[in-house]
Amino acid sequence: MHRDHRSAATPRNPRAPTHSTVALLLLGALTGCRPAADDTAGDRATNASGSTTDQPRVALAPTGPGELPPAIIGNGGSLQGTDVNYVTGDAATTGYLAVPEGEGPFPALVIIHEWNGLVDRVREVADDFAAEGYVTLAADLYAGRTGGSPEENIELMNAATEDMATVVTNLDAAVSFLRARPDVTGRVGAMGWCFGGGVALSFGLDGTSHEATAIFYGRLVDDPDVLARLDHEVYGTFAREDEGPSPGQVQAFETALRSAGIANDLHIYDEVGHGFWLRVDQDMETRAEPGLQAWERLKAYLDRTLRR
Predict the structure, then answer these.
(1) For 194, left (φ over 0), alpha (ψ -120 to 50), or beta?
(2) CATH of range 10-306; options 3.40.50.1820, 3.30.750.200, 3.90.1200.10, 3.30.360.10
């Protein structure tokens, strides 16, 4: 595991599953997740066709050295993607699709929201990944609903995971939706935060085959026999001042990955707590430098797993 170190960060200007595994990963996913004031659902028309024509496009504008993506520092700006129904026959489940400008083909990402649902901060992050050159689908595990309090978030999360198989089935549909597009290479990764981080790991273990799993402080597994089901390298960003997962749990996860022979890039950042990366703007002085390091590691990880 990487040792923590600090460097200057310059924000960029705006512009089929086993039930037991899923249950294990979702247990305790509540710790530290809190909705922010900017986390609103928004109100957009739904594009259910999935057609690649007449869709909004995001200008290709990858971050350079020392630059953070706009969304996580509060500069996400106007949304540039479109809502889509990616689960066949399900009009309530409404994801958000952000597509880069150009013909492609591009690698693709499924990003998975926190416990409060698919809010605008996550949609803005999808736009940022499109600017990096990824066709990005922000999944919706709550059938279009979002929570505004811990109590509402718990209720939504419990409802979504009551039938554990539906969680991975939803994400299977997201991958199929992306791979059916002619502007996608066929290589797809999944990533998430908190609740979504645990779901991303569960999906890597039990979902349809894909090429990357990125976890931001999500529920972990420390059984090498379970982790041996993974068929690709795993990325993980965690916080020293966190109990969900704690540094000890991250160490156990890394040990189990090594025992299972799974390549990994894991890092615990000092002086920050749960949820730091998605909302760097809440404490720029403390979060910008580890946020930048996590971002640069993530970009390199996605390059080597999805752009081959």
Answers:
(1) left
(2) 3.40.50.1820
